[in-house]
Task: inverse folding
């Protein structure tokens, strides 16, 4: 079964710190790592390592980070023929300070070329004919919806980062995979009852076929 991912490609700059900084505070890091990332690219790489037939649709900048992203996906056996280089903007970047003990982190994302992904970019055979189409929300919402409506395959949406979604998009989704925070945001529920039954009731209220 073919898998196509429409989504973000970011270069992650991960900084290890003893503790996360407070507002206006400077802390000293103990290590830094530059890694391929982005919710879309991570999905594609994971699927590619499991088998062939994985396609990535997205945008990178015209910079050295773009080459590193494309090489990492190719190494994971992902077809990157529909990942476009975009002049005049950088590849998306995420800066992530992480506590050495416990792993608590903060994430700041600069979308860069991801923000330039258009509905025309996803009007391609690898989207139309995908057996499974994987989506997230680090690219423009109109492009996510265009991809969901264009495919014949099963649409799986990770609704992150959390934001309100149009009913038309949810109706095009076969499988929605939110965490608790994302589910509450989509359902317009501020919190309260955290029981599995309450969360299941929130999920049933959404338009997606399966949550």
Result:
């Amino acid at each position: 079964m073919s898998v196509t991912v429409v989504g973000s490609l970011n270069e992650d700059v991960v900084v290890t710190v003893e503790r996360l900084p407070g507002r206006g505070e400077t802390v000293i890091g103990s290590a830094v790592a530059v890694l391929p990332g982005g919710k879309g690219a991570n999905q594609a790489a994971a699927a590619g390592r499991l088998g062939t037939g994985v396609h990535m649709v997205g945008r990178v900048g015209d910079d050295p980070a773009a080459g590193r992203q494309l090489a990492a996906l190719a190494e994971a056996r992902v077809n990157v023929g529909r990942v476009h280089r975009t002049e005049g903007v950088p590849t998306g970047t995420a800066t992530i300070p992480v506590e050495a003990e416990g792993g608590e982190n903060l994430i700041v994302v600069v979308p860069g070329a991801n923000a330039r992904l258009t509905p025309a970019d996803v009007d391609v055979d690898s989207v139309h004919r995908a057996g499974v189409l994987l989506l997230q929300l680090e690219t423009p919402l109109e492009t996510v919806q265009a991809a969901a409506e264009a495919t014949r395959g099963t649409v799986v949406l990770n609704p992150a980062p959390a934001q309100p979604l149009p009913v038309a998009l949810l109706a095009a989704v076969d499988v929605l995979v939110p965490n608790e925070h994302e589910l509450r945001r989509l359902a317009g529920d501020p919190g309260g009852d955290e029981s599995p039954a309450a969360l299941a009731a929130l999920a049933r209220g959404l338009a997606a076929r399966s949550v």
Summary: Residues 39-50 form the longest helix (12 residues). The chain has a mean pLDDT of 90. The chain is about 30% helix and 30% strand.
